[in-house]
Amino acid sequence: MINTYQTSMALPQVPPPVPPRLGSKPLLRFLVCVVTLHLFLSVGGFLYLYYNERQIAHVSSKLILLIIAVLSLERKVNQIKKPDMHLCFFPLLVGFPPVEKQDTTYRAFARMLIGKPNATIEKKSGYLEWRMDLSVRKNINYYGKSWLTVLEPGDYLVYSRVTFSKHSIAPLTGCIKLKNMETGAEKEVAKAHCSLSDKDGLNPQLCTVTLQDVITLSRGNQLSVWVENLSLVDYGKQSTSFGMYKL
Where do the TM regions start and end (predicted)? Predict the structure, then answer.
């Protein structure tokens, strides 16, 4: 029998295994480190530019406000007379007060004016009635036509000017009365007198009772002007007035 599995041809040679590349892992690690470092540098640069730009913008806005303030001060200096020049620079020497002390736009105040009555005034004492269309109020309410009601507690400068005319032998009295809204109790907080009597042959025919005081008021307190004789009051717009101003 012939052996067909044997042959005289040489077997093909198997190539030797390729040795592992030892330098590939360090190279890969180096590339990863470079990419990570580049990422950190990019993020850090972006944050630095962002905050630096904001800081520059903030400083620029302050500089612009300072320039506007200087220009405004210069314009006011040009408008003020030379003898009053020191008044413009006085705040710079003593320092500006806090903002809440400078702003007086929204402080409570009232200036009440009287008008001529339509009917004949009786000869008796009583409270003066004010013309709301001629008066000015801010953050102060009113009750009826005679009383002012305090809405904001604090110290107020209260004043009153009542002018009397015609003839009267006895001295005339005017006073400011305070009424507690809760109890209804009234008390005098300021009082003054004047006289229309003939003295030494002089007859001025006019006298004025002027009242002014600083009063601490609570919310709900009411103020009014009381006079001894309503028929002798001069009802001119500028002759008789009443007001208050929160300090």
Answer: 27-50, 56-73
Distance CA(209)–CA(199), nearest Å, equals: 18
CB 146 within 8 A of CB 112: no
Is the pLDDT at 79 greater than 70? The verdict is no
Spatial neighbors of 163 by CB under 8 A, at least 6 apart, are 206, 207, 208, 209, 233, 234, 236, 239, 240
Question: Would the pTM of this model clear 0.85, i.e. be above it?
Answer: no
Q: CA end-to-end span of the chain, whole Å? A: 137
Q: Tokens 């008796």 correspond to what residue?
A: 124
Q: Do both 90 and 202 map to the same domain?
A: no
Q: Is the pLDDT of residue 20 over 70?
A: no
The domain that holds 240 is classified in CATH as 2.60.120.40
Taking the C-alpha atoms of residue 77 and residue 87, their distance in angstroms, rounded to an integer, is 10
Query: Do 210 and 118 have their domain in common?
Result: yes
Neighbours of 4 (CB within 10 A): 6
